[in-house]
Amino acid sequence: MPHTSLKETPMSVIPDKPALEGLEAKWGERWSEQGTFLFDRLRAAEAGRTGVYSIDTPPPTASGSLHIGHVFSYTHTDIKARFERMRGKNVFYPMGWDDNGLPTERRVQNYYGVRCDPSLPYDPDFTPPFEGGDNKSSRAADQLPISRRNFIELCEKLTIEDEKQFEALFRQLGLSVDWTQTYRTISDDTIRQSQLAFLRGLERGEAYQSLAPTLWDIDFRSAIAQAELEDREQQAAYHRVAFRRSDGSGDIQIETTRPELLAACVALVAHPDDERYQPYFGSTVRTPVFDVEVPVLAHHLAQPDKGSGIAMICTFGDVTDIIWWRELDLPNRTILGKDGRVLADAPEAIVSDAGRAAYAELAGKTVFSARKSMVELLQASGDLIEVGKPFNHAVKFFEKGDRPLEIVSTRQWYIRNGARDEKLRDDLLENGRQMAWHPDFMRVRYENWVGGLTGDWLISRQRFFGVPIPLWYGLDENGERDYDRVITPSHDSLPIDPTSDVPAGYTAEQRGVPGGFDAEQDIFDTWATSSLTPQLAGGWQRDEDLWNLVAPFDLRPQGQDIIRTWLFSTMLRSTLEDQRAPWSNAAISGFIVDPDRKKMSKSKGNVVTPADILDKHGSDAVRYWSASSRLGMDAAFDPQNPTQVKIGRRLAIKILNAAKFVLSFPVPEGAQVTHALDASMLATLDRVVREATAAYENYDQAKALEVTEAFFWAFCDDYLELVKERAYDQTDVGQASAALALRLALSTLLRLLAPIVSFATEEAWSWFEEGSIHTASWPEALDIEGDPAVLATASEALVGIRRAKTEAKASQKTPVSTATIAAPAAKIEALRAAADDLRAVGRIAELSFAEAEELAVTAIELAPVEA
């Protein structure tokens, strides 16, 4: 017998009026008490790796609040987890919290009105000036400076509170996460594993330090990696400036949007094929105002159609300047500091008194003020030819920053990522090809990113709340860092904080003194830790038995916008450490867009928080909306009129009501499916089971929902109506067949819908089955012989009967004396198989059939209305 309970259900178990309200709390608590979604280590060990389905769940950033996009994408993952669990897999479904990083620090600064000053001592009795709100308008100067340790304590306090709220919302949504398998990206275990992975990479030569031009956010006071950049439109104007040729034979005019960097100019550059400037290649010119001799060079990245066709190379105005500086082997004359202001000391190349005096007028100024002063200096010298009309152009920003990035020279740590290593790049591409991508076209975005890398991965950050880089430096006899003497800790001493821990062979008194040691102050970029989420969740180098059961993971679900950051960086770490892809599947969700089809984002102010939506419509309704969109496809959401959510709520309510109705029909002992209409319905359902199962297997929950829901509504609207009279009538020889078919269909439909409509299906299941539906076996085709055409044709005829009564302005309950249904011969045969049920549902005394090209009710005579 297929999986379903045939015992009679006491109607006292079923509410008089089934409702969705309260189901989230009821079943959430029950699932937690019963450990429904716990990962069973013992059973997993017995089954081996093939019996496990492991998910590398995205750890949301614990800074602020979740938005509707989280609900959207995390539901997609949960649907797959529930499906695999019902298929018999032992599902490893952890949850992480991404605590560290720049967003958390900024939130703490705004929330408490503080900022970190590492020079200050720790205050064990510190109380922040205020608590609450986002205080985004506050300036750094208005924030109270506190010690690094005090600041980190506030970060930990606030992220823990955020995580509690996130977990509560995820539980309300019904995520079947194993909440005993959680991790934080700032815990001792995480710090140890992150530091260990770095040290292993350092030993293999994959991590290295370099003094180089660095993209710098002057507000966050931190280096920014390539993957964290975004272009934003900014207004600018071309300034045409004359450079005098060194031999006195005239001038060369350039156009620049950044005249404030003139003191950092190291060359002029034009395209090698540009005939206008070919005569000048190899000669020199002198910079206006500062009178520094610089060469005129050729490079293929120069654009003949941009400005005057020749540009000045400054260290550094933009990313192209870095390429020119590196490939043309030019000097570094950086004039901007980490605070975004012009450095006090002029570059050594400026030697004239007039040049140094001019530079002194710029020193200490912001970029904007320095630009204004530089224009005035150029006007006074007569070297400013003209200023063009303002225009908009793309400028590099940190994706979470407010002001354009500058480029300063700093010493940073990097991990090799294939930008300058062809073999590593090929390995990354090959490992990407070894995975299944859902949808497949997202693979191209990964490959384009790998192919477009221009530099290694910058992983150090000049921040405070994060994983410390576990290194010290030896100091020379003058107390200066010797960067060739990097001191590393032993692996078994991790985790460490070099600012408070002492390296082996030294004493605390040797910190900061000549011949002693100095701590690395920087921390890892948050992605340098988040790139290890499979390792953090799966017990790498901590619980090897667990690691061997779950790795490589089966699934990485994530958003399309972080393919270049999270997916790529995780692939890189796995390729470097294990020479393999970290997962076998990547499921990429689309964006949530507002009714105007604009991507929802906090900066645009169009983000919708999900709490009110969940409270108002119920979690099943919201899960239904999420499931309705295929992976990789954007979904519109209108909080004022959430149509799909309302449809989902209607479905969830119908599930409860239909289940109550079906369970009202007792199934006699020994019942068999004998009626053609019942067999037809179950044969049709078999096809739905096969299609939905294939769709779930292929990560297409939208297709699975589409085919299941279509059948469910036809089942309720047509089949239930057709057989209810027979199912009620204990004297009808077909009663047992109808009641059994209804019960089998209910059991199958509830399980097909359980991954999506998780609360209503669990409630209905509990009325007639033991245990949770979410650990029940996935439905399989019943293989009952039946002709699907019988149900399809009978449903078509039922529509015709209803229409005929409506056109006669009669109630559907009105008795009919005679009715004739015309149809093709093949359909008449199917109609005869369901004739008794058609007569019963239509209240037809005499039903006849006639051949015709199309099915239609050709004659109907209503019974006389009794006086």
UniProtKB/TrEMBL annotation:
<dbReference type="InterPro" id="IPR002300">
    <property type="entry name" value="aa-tRNA-synth_Ia"/>
</dbReference>
<feature type="short sequence motif" description="'KMSKS' region">
    <location>
        <begin position="599"/>
        <end position="603"/>
    </location>
</feature>
<dbReference type="InterPro" id="IPR048044">
    <property type="entry name" value="Valyl-tRNA_ligase_actino"/>
</dbReference>
<keyword id="KW-0030">Aminoacyl-tRNA synthetase</keyword>
<keyword id="KW-0067">ATP-binding</keyword>
<comment type="similarity">
    <text>Belongs to the class-I aminoacyl-tRNA synthetase family. ValS type 2 subfamily.</text>
</comment>
<keyword id="KW-0547">Nucleotide-binding</keyword>
<comment type="function">
    <text>Catalyzes the attachment of valine to tRNA(Val). As ValRS can inadvertently accommodate and process structurally similar amino acids such as threonine, to avoid such errors, it has a 'posttransfer' editing activity that hydrolyzes mischarged Thr-tRNA(Val) in a tRNA-dependent manner.</text>
</comment>
<feature type="domain" description="Aminoacyl-tRNA synthetase class Ia">
    <location>
        <begin position="27"/>
        <end position="114"/>
    </location>
</feature>
<comment type="subunit">
    <text>Monomer.</text>
</comment>
<dbReference type="InterPro" id="IPR009080">
    <property type="entry name" value="tRNAsynth_Ia_anticodon-bd"/>
</dbReference>
<keyword id="KW-0648">Protein biosynthesis</keyword>
<feature type="binding site">
    <location>
        <position position="602"/>
    </location>
    <ligand>
        <name>ATP</name>
    </ligand>
</feature>
<dbReference type="GO" id="GO:0016874">
    <property type="term" value="F:ligase activity"/>
</dbReference>
<dbReference type="InterPro" id="IPR014729">
    <property type="entry name" value="Rossmann-like_a/b/a_fold"/>
</dbReference>
<feature type="domain" description="Aminoacyl-tRNA synthetase class Ia">
    <location>
        <begin position="142"/>
        <end position="637"/>
    </location>
</feature>
<keyword id="KW-0436">Ligase</keyword>
<dbReference type="InterPro" id="IPR002303">
    <property type="entry name" value="Valyl-tRNA_ligase"/>
</dbReference>
<keyword id="KW-0963">Cytoplasm</keyword>
<dbReference type="Pfam" id="PF00133">
    <property type="entry name" value="tRNA-synt_1"/>
</dbReference>
<dbReference type="Pfam" id="PF08264">
    <property type="entry name" value="Anticodon_1"/>
</dbReference>
<feature type="short sequence motif" description="'HIGH' region">
    <location>
        <begin position="60"/>
        <end position="70"/>
    </location>
</feature>
<dbReference type="InterPro" id="IPR009008">
    <property type="entry name" value="Val/Leu/Ile-tRNA-synth_edit"/>
</dbReference>
<protein>
    <recommendedName>
        <fullName>Valine--tRNA ligase</fullName>
        <ecNumber>6.1.1.9</ecNumber>
    </recommendedName>
</protein>
<dbReference type="InterPro" id="IPR001412">
    <property type="entry name" value="aa-tRNA-synth_I_CS"/>
</dbReference>
<dbReference type="InterPro" id="IPR013155">
    <property type="entry name" value="M/V/L/I-tRNA-synth_anticd-bd"/>
</dbReference>
<feature type="domain" description="Methionyl/Valyl/Leucyl/Isoleucyl-tRNA synthetase anticodon-binding">
    <location>
        <begin position="678"/>
        <end position="818"/>
    </location>
</feature>
<dbReference type="InterPro" id="IPR022874">
    <property type="entry name" value="Valine-tRNA_ligase_type_2"/>
</dbReference>
